[in-house]
Structures
1.
Amino acid sequence: MEEVLDALRRFDRFLLTSHERLDGDAVGSELALCRILRAAGKQADVYNQDPTPANYRFLPGAEEILNVLPPVERYEAAVILDCSDLERVGRESQRIGSIPRLINIDHHVSNGGFCERTWIEPDASSTGELIFRLAERGGFALSPETADCLYTAVLTDTGGFRYGNTRTETLRAASVLVGCGASPQAISENVYESYPAERFRLLGIALRSLSFDLGGKVGSLVVTLDAMAAAGAIPEMTENFVDLPRSVKGVVVSILFSELAPNRFKVSLRSKGSFNVERVAAAFRGGGHVNAAACRIEGDLEAVRRRVLDAIREAGL
């Protein structure tokens, strides 16, 4: 942390970015750090390859996020948040990698460190929790707007404080953030109770694919490109679909197969208890956390399903 804090104090012009297919931790963390840096008199821009998902556009500053990368020569440092690999920022990874100083703040256990200034805490609930710790340690004041961003990051990456990554420090951070002005009700309504009708049409189609394997210990859903088109949906609307099979009694591992292109799938994995889905994802050059991970696999759906189930068996389920 100290090396990261030192860099944030020493330099004045920052680019902040995160991974493709944005989630609440990514957006909340980068918007919060942007506000912290600007309040300290720094120049900071947030760039993401993908548009901000609709249910996170309420966050303060979301309207300023850039989706076209500016000339990178204007930046002294880039902060890559919630990313275990530089390539995960998307098409502009090479240009971002050319910025003189790269800083990585992340909590993925699969992060092996891809730049010289790195702060990785796999035990942290979220990157948002790390930004909270950074602000506390650095003596940065947290405005209500910054608190909203960080609370959203922590809330979403802990599944509403339900997952095993919810620890004492996580709940203390949430408490302090509420004390700083974060609004749990308003945030939850925006994040969880503002979905478009197309999402539920897509969910209805996806639920027809619900299947169980390995004696009922694995539950899965499939979202195809045809299903997306039929529902009038977009990829961001599948957020949290992967959690649904896990809610079935007896299911230990939940899978969402999302078709990205013909014969190419994103495989999202969730687990209960101590079963390590990061090991499963790593078998396909993916990564994540013990109870939440993802990878991408090429092949037809049934071949991909067989390979994933085989990897789950080999991991000990």
2.
Amino acid sequence: LSGHLGHLTGAQDKALQEFKARLEQNGYYTPASETALPSADDVTLVRFLRARKFDVPGAYAQFTSAEDWRRTEQIDQLYDSFSLPEFEMARQLYPQWTGRRDNSGLPVYVFEVASLTKEKTDPYSKDSSRLEPRIVALYEHMVQYVLPLSSAIPHAHQESPISGCATLVDISGVSLQRFWALKGHMQRASTLANARYAETLGARIYLIGAPSFFSVVWGWIQKWFDEGTRNKIHILSAADLTSTLSAHMPLSSIPRKYGGTLDWTFGESGPNLDAEAREVL
């Protein structure tokens, strides 16, 4: 948990204070007052610091670039006014929250790449001007709703707010040709996450069902992520799939398809909230 709120070292906390001061001095941060919350919470600021190994100049460059982008693209307004039908259409083609969490409290997302058939992706991609806004809406839903909700649900280290997710990426049954066709679709989302939503990919990404030609695909994927994110990717074989997942999350958080007890199917249902989550709501 080093590098997370509640577990910052003295040097890391000093970097956070320096980061805030530099941002405030240049108009990118407003501290909390008696009548207003800070313009950015500590969870967000620490995410950007962690992405740059607590190098303040590096975090400043990434955060201010993201903030300039948010202002130019009017991201808050985009999310607040995003239509539900378009949001649901986008949700079908990207990782989906199961409604459950791992042992650390991270929300568990699942992405079944084989579900991205040509019949789904071709119509989706016709209006190129809407591709990025749709991804943005999904990320905003995660950082504005899913992560705060997960933080509010009792978890192992309540002193540390949840700032990222755990993702199961199922690549079984996908041909090399189809991977190539989907490369731009997946790269667009991963690049946006790294640049604008630092460290939201959480502690672990589980790759399931890797085909024999995966070394070719891995050569592409590695270029989409920074080193820190690449180190979070774990390739699971069929033999150790359930045992590895169950070491990091309860069986009730693992869909039945992967050896757990959770009744949840990608693309067919929304989050299946447990009693703890429903109680918080």
3.
Amino acid sequence: MKRPTVGIIGLGPVGSILAAHLAKGGVDVVVEDIAKELLVKIREDGLRVSGIRELAARFDKVVGSLAELAEFEPDIVFVATKACFLRIVLAELKSVYKAGMSVVSFQNGLDNERVAVETLGIDTAYRVVINYAGELVSSGSAKMNWFQPPNYVGALKSGRYTTDETTKYIAEIMTVSGLETEEAPDIKKHVWEKTILNSALCSVCALTGQTMKGAMEFGFSRDVAVKVLEEGLMVAEADGYDFGEDALDRFTGYLKKGGAHKPSMLVDVESRRRIEVDFLSGAIAGYGELYGVETPVNIVLTGLLKALENRYLKKKS
């Protein structure tokens, strides 16, 4: 039986950490990114992970386009770019997509898997909720800052959430490779939880420049973050996902444990890159409008972040 080939699109911190673990675990991996200097570095030296994990992996299959990726006929393709690039990636992937290819959103945000189904015109798409984080140290080198296992994987099949043989395989190869992952029959509950938590500090820190620890130690920014949580929990409940009476306290307690790290959206703002707010606070606000749940804090944060993004992107152009 042919060993499945796994493609990874996007070699930021999350994609690099995934690729290094899978390759080190013996998985046949093809990595893709559009950064030419990065690809040269990976071809020569592979990828290195530092921080809470120390490992290095080399790669024989390193490509700079999805057309090249498709030549290796990957069985499973992880889309590990920022969610704000998802539609662009899927539009390009559609031109090389072949029946039997399993597409996995390995990203933050709500409904990425539905976007994949709709864009590619397929019946099934997969989703992983990632419970690790890191940062790029240099070209070909990523630091893994924390991992709170497990990750979760599920499938959206014919409009319903479930698990299947592919989710089983993904959970197995990730776990064997050191990234403990469990199957989730209703992955959307885990997506909601991660989205609500991410929205609270990503949005606040991206606007204020605070670290996660700093935002939760300063009274006003902490209060804003808690309001994001509160609104998110109400919208999730309207969507059928009730996290319990003590959810706000639990979620707030989780945020208080955040270290002196910059969330990824703050890093993107500082680097003048596109941000994924539409898939986080913006998505919460969108669901709130759908269900008639008021989300004024998420609406304001989304609008301010999009204004900030628009200003610096216009300057770059």
4.
Amino acid sequence: MSLYQWMDARLGPADTFSVPLNVNALHYGTGVFEGIRSYATQDGAAVFRLREHLLRMKQGCEVIGIDFDMDEIGEAILAVLRANQHRDAYIRPLSFYGSGLGLDVEALQQHHWVASVPWNSHLGSAKVKLAHSPFRRNRHTSIPPLKLCGAYVNSLMAKHEATKRGFGEALFTDESGLVVECTGENVFMVKNGQITAVEHPDALGGITRRTVIELTGADSRAVSLEELREADEIFLTGTSAEIAQVGQLDQRELGPNPVTLTLRARYLGIVRGESAEHERWLTRF
């Protein structure tokens, strides 16, 4: 049975939607997406920090000139989840330019699409093997750190290179040796029990990153690769990755991760509706 999706104000089976091969977004990356999670709770299911995700997506759409209605897409997300009867799921909204080749997109049709699939953390609960990448992250002065489709070729290249070397994720640094982020996650370090959020202008403003800072009061600042190598613990944050412990950075193996594991357990409790204090972050459906 086909899963339900939503496109351009219509909810229907996924196999009833299609786009032609000359769609502009396929050729030039002229689209904006988000990655959003829903979770099963004791009282139904809930989307985590839906409004924050939609605000970031709206920012991306404004950059490339796509009209974006947060209320419409928010309702579409909930409709898709209900139609698919999904609880633990990954939600992918996508806004993009339609048929037409070339970079003059003003006259092209704009499309909006939403899908959901059953999901668990893409990095899993095992420790991540992290490799310092030879590639640089897109500079924020060239491409803003938002979820612009074409920009993610940069992530693909770095991830592919790290995978060929036997690692599970790649770490970007800049020309000065400052840590930026991973291909799809922000970076944190723990030293002497103190949590630090890596800050860099080229890094995505992660919603899970913001959540961890709000929960822990972590210091947000620039961190060099040399300092990161000396950390007691390293962990990664992202909507799909949640809070993932790093077990190895290049050739250095890290020890136990008590701070990371405690924080991860707290986070998973919050997204599953176990904290009345943080109910405001949940959109129940």
